[in-house]
Amino acid sequence: MTKEKKAAIETAVRAGEFIKSRLGKVRELSFKTVRNIVTDVDKKSEKLIINRLRRKFPDYSILGEEGGNRESKSVYKWVIDPIDGTTNFAHNLPLFCVSIALEYKGEPVLGVVYEPIRRELFYAEKNKGAYLNNKRIYVSKTNKLSESLVATGSAYVLRETKCNNVDHYVDFIIFAQGLRRFGSAALDMCYVACGRLDGFWEADLHPWDTAAGYVIVKEAGGRVTDFSGNKYSHYEKETLASNGKIHRQMLNVLKGRGKDIFTREYLLKVKKGISKNGQIK
């Protein structure tokens, strides 16, 4: 185990247990936007994480959701989400996590996600596999979108976002077996990595939302791109993660429009991606 992975795991678990101890005890809640909230626990969790990582790696840069940023000349950067799923946490809904990633020259090479309620620790290092509580994990083998369970999220303020995901949501309700919205992109990606979900897509994301999940999905055998199938970057807004087998099918759906779903125009638009039995290829 590298010293960075050991530190990230220990720190994520420590922060996660702190967050769990504060569930239902939020003292301060403020709004970054109309619907994007931050609690006193987010801030304390980020402070805990940054302090621990800085003590061990004082020269590394840091990017944190709640503003705990530090730039340096190092080729390494920690990318931190102190609570991914803050809205769930603030409503006493036990579905949230701590997400810590490490970049090397701009590429995420280490991802750690800790879900404290079930005490599930997901982690992965580049070229070393993905794990859940020290057991190797892999993506699912499902190869048909119609037999797949997928998940998504949405922008905090739909009316102010160009890609508000509503049309995509409608399309996937029709083409997938089931669709879920859990409220934590990091957990969604971990669930793809361990086979609980077959795919996940979301737009209007930030680096701390997906950096750790990206490494975990890739090391579990999955695929991560943008909505056009281009190379993934956690600094871009779009993320499509899947088991790889349904990736092209999900891309085809993302190229369509929900309001045209039953029309001849839509079917002609995706004709090359649909087989005779109605399955999206």
Summarize the structure.
The chain folds into two domains: 3-136, Fructose-1,6-Bisphosphatase, subunit A, domain 1 (Fructose-1,6-Bisphosphatase, Chain A, domain 1), CATH 3.30.540; 145-273, D-Maltodextrin-Binding Protein, domain 2. Helix content is 31%, strand content 23%.
Topology:
Elements: H1 3-21, E1 29-31, E2 37-39, H2 40-56, E3 61-64, E4 76-84, H3 86-90, E5 97-104, E6 107-115, E7 120-125, E8 130-132, E9 135-136, E10 149-152, H4 166-175, E11 178-180, H5 185-193, E12 199-202, H6 207-219, E13 223-225, E14 239-242, H7 247-254, H8 264-269
Helix pairs in contact: 1-2, 5-6
State the separation between the terminal residues, measured CA to CA: 40 Å
Largest sheet descriptor: 7 strands, mixed
What form results from the Cα inertia axes? globular
Count of DSSP strands:
14
Residue share in helices?
25-40%
Strand content: 15-25%
How many helices? 8
Order of helices and strands: HEEHEEHEEEEEEHEHEHEEHH
Which CATH-level-2 architecture of the largest domain?
2-Layer Sandwich
Would you state the CATH class of the largest domain? Alpha Beta
Structural class assignment: alpha+beta
Number of domains: 2
Can you put this structure into words, describing what you see?
The chain has helices spanning 3-21, 40-56, 86-90, 166-175, 185-193, 207-219, 247-254, 264-269, and strands spanning 29-31, 37-39, 61-64, 76-84, 97-104, 107-115, 120-125, 130-132, 135-136, 149-152, 178-180, 199-202, 223-225, 239-242. With 281 residues, it is an alpha+beta fold. The protein folds into two domains: 3-136, 2-Layer Sandwich (Fructose-1,6-Bisphosphatase, Chain A, domain 1), CATH 3.30.540; 145-273, D-Maltodextrin-Binding Protein, domain 2. It has a seven-stranded mixed beta sheet with strand order 3-4-5-6-7-8-9, with helices on both faces. A hairpin with a 4-residue loop joins strand 6 (107-115) and strand 7 (120-125).
